[in-house]
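Lecture 7, part 2: worked example. A protein chain together with magnesium ion.
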Amino acid sequence: MENHHADTRDAVRQLFDTVDAISVQGYDQELKVVYWNIGSEKLYGYTADEAVGRTLDELIIPEHMREDVVTAHRNWVISGVEIPASELTLRNRNGEDVSVYSSHVMFRNASDEYEMYCIDVYLGDVKKAQRQAVSKDELLNSVFQSIPDLFFLLTEDGRIIDCHAGDSQKLYVQYEKIVGKHMVDFLPEEVSAKFKVSIAKAIAEGGVLSLEYYLDLPIGRIYFEARLSHLSGQKQIVVIARDITEAHEAAELIRKQAYFDSLTSIPNRLLSLDRLSQMVKEMDRSGEKAAVVFLDIDDFKKINDSLGHEVGDKVLVEAANRLSSVVRDSDTVGRLGGDEFIVLLGALAESFDAVGTVEKLLGAFREPFTIDGRELILTTSIGVAVFPDNGECATDLLRNADAAMYQSKEAGRNTYSFFTKQMNAMILHRLEIEEQLYGALERGEFEVCFQPKINLRSGQIMGAEALLRWHSSVMGTIAPDEFIPIAEQTGLIVPIGKYVLAQSLACLKSWGDGQDYTMAVNLSPRQFRDPDFIEFVKTSLNASGVAPDRLEFEITEGVLLIGQGCVDDILKGLHGLGVKLSMDDFGTGYSSLSYLRQYDFDLLKIDRSFVAGITTIKEDRDLVTATIAMAHSLNLQVVAEGVETGDQLDLLHKLGCDVAQGYHFSKPIPANDLMDFRLVDTCIPGG
Ligand code: C2E
Ligand code: MG
Ligand code: MG
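Predicted complex, written out as structure tokens:
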């Protein structure tokens, strides 16, 4: 290669002159530049004018290489040892590195001197691309390492080409066991089918698809979310799978909280009613019957109040378990709230078919409940409404089952009742009462009557109890036991109660006779929750000028159950005004004694049901005897209500009862009659 002709060289030089992508430099024997093409100028920054005449090493060879270059060149000239082509990092005019692939040729020129030609191809771009590739690789690796997702590269037909997992544990299988395999070989059928569908879709439509699936692994069920996209160039599928078990469990928990009762884990009211609606629709379609069973644990409040909420909670959990164990899996047992449960029995041929299950539900309570080592005897009252006979929609069925349940309570509890036409009439009656109750006050349909109370020591009338009467223009006279609970539920009791108080104070004021008669007024729970109540009593008392201690409020235990804080405040407030407090219907509730100790009562009224039995039933007499003794020990006056006979009166007098009221003396009478009321002498025992 050294013996080329000069003219050939010129032709080659001419060619190189125009090439700017390759640097071609010619050097003489002293390594001085004799040729410098445009490509060299571009690569190294020196113009031909600047370069020609200077030596190779001072132009483009970095200091540390200079000696080697000079030596290698000399070796070539003297001993014919070629300098091999190689990758080199040289230097440009600005002192910056220039990476090149350099090839070298040695010529003998016309004057028989050696000329070396260097042909340098710029490698900077290639190097950069290589560096980028390496760093992309590193980046990808560190991404794989640091994020929890699993990466899979698949062929379009679902064979695994490669996979990565930052934490190889997370792959749950050995890498070698899946690479090269087809999805269907190691994924459950449904899961690989899901993938197949998504892959087909990704290929057809492009974009990123996501799918969820779970795998039952030795460590348990793991939920995954996979994102899948098609690399159309490579005809490959990228799958990124993420363990979403935690998120899934959280979502499941939220769903549970929304639809399941946190205490008993059975469907809550929301889900139960939803299932009821669902069942109604299904039975409507299939033409079958269904039963809605409403259960209420008898005297559950008693347990809560006497044994505490924790015991109450355990009872509810046990009750839910027992009820659930009695029904078929397809039936629903739900908790509507408090101690109320619902059972939905679907697909019945006859309403009678529900009887067996209902009896089992009742029987589920037969065994005593053992809670914290204590045996509790519990019963439940059940009401049943049947679709479609007793209602065609969820609301009607539920209401009617509820009504039937009340029937069971009335019948003495621990029993079941099916909804009947009579109950329906009762419900309609209630609805009518409610309708008529609105506006009754404005229409002047209420009247307050007064029942005299007799002091058994003096034998004299000493006061009266105000009892409300409603003469409805549409329905005639309606008893308070019927309309008071409805007035209570609707809140109408608040204005009505104010009316009763006003009438009672007015009566008391005009009821002179030089006596300080007292007036007892009944209060119901709803009135307690009226924030203006105390203030209203105060202004009314002031306006009437009646001494506060002549006014008594009668309260049943129901009032005390609305919440201790609230009751405390109001009872204290009333006491602060100087009015008296009386515990009404004593003996019908449950923890009366503890309430008597807890709150500051002045009087105790023995319920008329005990007075009725006092002369004939030993238990009633014993209870009245004990009550009087206990009340006196707590400094309470005892009033007996519902005294109907002279024998009852005699006995009560003997037992030390302080006050009596009842038909024996007088029925409740209008205010005018009260003013004229005189006791018939023979009413009073002994003297
Ligand atoms: P209560 O406070 O226990 O009233 C006594 C009930 O016994 C009254 O029934 C009275 O008429 C009745 N009674 C009195 N003497 C006898 C008797 O010798 N034999 C029998 N069998 N019964 C007798 P009433 O008037 O029907 O009132 C029923 C309940 O309605 C009352 O029970 C009371 O809880 C409630 N109530 C009445 N008026 C009002 C009121 O203005 N406000 C509130 N919140 N409740 C009222
Ligand atoms: Mg009363
Ligand atoms: Mg009473």
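The CA atoms of residues 352 and 386 lie 10 Å apart. Residues 451, 466-468, 479-481, 484, 497, 500, 522-524, 554, 584-585, 608, 641-644, 662-663, 668 surround C2E (ligand 1) (CB under 6 Å). Keep this in mind for problem set question 3.
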